[in-house]
Amino acid sequence: MAAGYGEILRARHAARLLTGTLVGRLPNATAAIAIVLFVRAQGGTYSLAGALAAVYGVANAVGQPLLGRLVDVYGQPRVQLPAALASALAMAVFAFTGTEPSAAAYASVAGAGLFTPPLEGGLRALWPTVLRREDQVHTAYAMDAVAQEVMFTVGPLLVTLCVSLWSEQGALLVLNALGVLGALSVVVSPPSRAWRSAPREAHWLGALRSPGLLALLGAFLFVGVALGSITVASVPYADEHGGDVVYGWLMAALGLGALVGGVGYGARRWTGTPERRLRGLVALLAVCYLPLMLMPGAVAMVALTALAGVFLAPALACAFVIVDRHAPRGTVTEAFSWLVTMFTVGASVGTGVAGPVVEAGGALWGFAVPAAAGAVSSVVLLATGRVMAAPAGGGVVAASSENDPNRAAEPRFSSGDRA
Questions:
Q1: In this structure, are residues 61 and 341 in contact, taking their beta carbons and an 8 Å threshold?
Q2: Could you tell me which of 330, 26, 3 has the C-alpha nearest to residue 139?
């Protein structure tokens, strides 16, 4: 297992790209908690804090595919770095002006979310140019999914550290400055500067004209709903079994389970089509949500929550491969960004749905929401099996001229040809 991941990280530029992307995404990973803490420090209400955090999230969901399309057209450096600077500047305006006037605060956080650079999709577009074998790219996708879990665990801790060392305003400024440095590290790297998307067919739908991609996005919308609803349903459970400490353990267990599952998934070479494998992974994900409705004691519940997260990172890693196989020519960054957007929107819907459900039926019915959402996601994949069938020529190692100014043929993964 260690040898497989070590082989990837030893590849030229791989560690730099992964680290730069994770650092560059820190502002996005920490935005919600940083905004809430800052608003409360300014004397604002929780309603205002939640509304501003929601505006940031919606703007981010809108901006990711739009910026991803621009990356496919103009390249990474010309889009990623200006977007990172614009996002950091907007958040700096919010940090210095505060919550009054409210219109300026909403405009600032909306700008910060809208211009968040699509580094996540950009990294997945770069992996096939850095790693020369298909199995290495698949492992890199799994490592990418694991790294996300680490980042979303460490990110909130960094916010609290910055608040304790400086202030809530300082946390906003420092984290966004780090984000710019991370984006800069990526875009000045040779793979990012050399990467060019293949010529794309002009179409207003862009990546969304792929039926297979639409089916995948529909399925992961409901995976997002499941994750968002768990975070809400866990609150009343924790209130009855130990309070905030138990809630923290439940959320940590969910991330730990995903991390363990992702590490194990990436350590193995898989046979068969990823579309078929994804159906199995999502079905297992849905099944593992069901035991949460048992609501046992705190220790057992933490274990069940960890189990509920085990198949999340593997499902995401498998989805990354499928996005690459189904993205229309010249739209790979946009396609990956759409997956991020749908997952984010689904999580927001999940939190919105679970709230009224919990108020009406308690934690038990709250935990029924992720189970139902997981089942719907599995049904979507089963119903669209024919549409999700691997496209002709997808997922194979083939000669490519992309990223090669001399048009020299060399073996590479399909994303290099079709991205």
A1: yes
A2: 3
